[in-house]
Amino acid sequence: MIIALTAIGKNPQNVSGYDLLAPLADFNFVKKQGINGPVWALIAFDTLQYEIPVDSSVSVQTSREKLIDYILSNQCTDGGWDLDGEYFDPDVTGMAVQALAPYVNKHSEVKSAVDKALEAMSKNQNADGSFSTAGENTPESCAQMITALSALNIDCLSDNRFIKNNNSVADSLLGFSVENGFEHTKGMGYNQMSTEQSYYSLVSYQRYISGQNTLYDMTDLISRGDVNFSGSATITDATLIQKYIAQSTAFTLLQQKVADFDKNGRVDINDVTALQKYLVTK
Length: 282
What we know:
The chain is mostly helical. It is built from 12 helices and 6 strands. The protein has helices spanning 2-7, 27-30, 36-47, 64-73, 90-100, 108-123, 139-151, 169-174, 192-209, 235-245, 253-259, 269-281, and strands at residues 132-133, 136-137, 163-164, 167-168, 177-178, 181-182. The chain has a two-stranded antiparallel sheet. Strand 1 (132-133) and strand 2 form a beta hairpin. The radius of gyration is 20 Å and the shape is globular.
C-alpha cells in the first residue's frame, strides 16, 4: 500500500489519520513472514526516501541497516534467495536484488552479494531464456528478473550473461502474452497476477532504456533541486544545498536525493553549479 500510494502521489503517512509506515518500525513484525518482509519494507521506505518511524515501545527498532543485514544474511549458498533459505528461487532472488540495488555502490557487502546473485541468475537461466520456479516456467519469474536487472542498469536484451541460445528473458516473458494480458501457464489464458507483474517489469525496462529513475525510485515525483519542496527549484534551493555542503544545515534522506542534481550519487558543489545553470536557462 505504501508503494501504491506513493506511486499515485498520495501520502501513506496520512491515510485518514493513519501512518502506514508506523507498523514497520517494529523489526520483529517486519521479518515475521520471513525474507519477503524486509525486502518489501526496504523497497517501500526507499520509494520516496521515507524516514523510518521511531517507536520506543518495540523490542527491536527497524533501520535500513537491519533490513539490509537481514537480506544479506539470508542469501543462499548458491547465490540466490528463497523463502525457505535453501536454494535459488528466481522470484525471491529478483525481489531481493531489487531491494538491494540502491545500495550496490554504497556498501561493498551488498555489491558482493548482488554480484554473487547475478552469477546465480545467469547460471539458472533456461535455454529458452526463461526461469523456473518449482520446475515450472512462469512469466512472474521472468518479470522479477527483468525488474532486478533494470534496477541495476543491466540491459536484459543485450547482456550476454542473460542471453541463452539467442533468447533473452524478455523473449521468454513475451511468450506468455495473450490478447488481454499475460497467462501464468501457456494455454491457460489470462491471469491477473501474471499480467500485473509482467506489465510492471516491462515498465521497469522502459524506464531503464529511457534514462528515467528505476521502477521503485519515485523521487522523480519531486523536481530535482527542489529541496524545500516548494513545487519547483529556485535560487533558494541552491543556497540551501550550499548550506548543507557546508554542514550548517541538515537534510533528510529525501532532500539529499533531490539535492543530487547531477545524479552522480553524492551532493557537492557541482550540484549547486548545475542547478544554478539550469535556473539561468530555465
